[in-house]
Write a sequence for this structure.
């Protein structure tokens, strides 16, 4: 199989390891060079009531059904997305998991449109990612059906990174459900 059909190569693992090492080294240098930064981070943590604890799953159980659906479909898409990124592309399993991922991502994006408690009932910046996903999913499927592998790869990777990872980070903003489940 051609190089583009393989899963993550040895060179990519080395690059990932080096990137993690580099970020860790940069954080250590900043911590040593600016000790006042640590005290300001600690005071900020006090202001936002940062108290890491064991997950409080009861908050998820008490959440509205649309939030439960959104969280379940997002976690499904995340798990399948990681598996798809690591596996060989173009196989029957890739296609089956890919369609399942598209359904999970679509469910995640559409359900997010009904979650507006934090912005006084209005849409927020994060809803732009949902719109991007709703438009991008059919486009990425259309691209692969037309044999445009590079376009498909870029679109799906972009939705995985932006629609899942970036949006997932926003889910841990103080005041949101996942913040209270894990950190607040």
């Amino acid at each position: 199989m051609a190089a583009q059909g393989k899963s993550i190569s040895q060179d990519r693992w080395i690059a990932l390891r080096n990137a993690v090492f580099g970020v860790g080294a940069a954080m250590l240098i900043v911590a040593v060079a600016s000790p006042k930064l640590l005290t300001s981070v600690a005071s900020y943590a006090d202001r936002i009531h940062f108290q890491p604890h064991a997950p409080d799953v009861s908050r998820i159980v008490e959440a509205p059904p649309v939030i439960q659906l959104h969280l379940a479909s997002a976690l499904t898409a995340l798990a399948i997305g990681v598996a798809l990124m690591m596996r060989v592309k173009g196989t029957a399993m890739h296609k089956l998991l890919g369609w399942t991922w598209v359904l999970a991502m679509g469910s995640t994006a559409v359900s997010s449109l009904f979650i507006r408690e934090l912005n006084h009932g209005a849409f927020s910046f994060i809803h732009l990612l949902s719109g991007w996903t709703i438009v991008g999913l059919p486009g990425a499927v259309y691209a692969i059906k037309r044999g445009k592998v590079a376009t498909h790869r870029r679109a799906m990777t972009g939705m995985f990174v932006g629609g899942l990872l970036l949006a997932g980070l926003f889910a841990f903003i103080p005041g949101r459900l996942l913040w209270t489940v894990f950190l607040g």
Notes: The mean pLDDT is 85. Residues 87 and 93 are 9 Å apart (CA to CA). The radius of gyration is 19 Å.
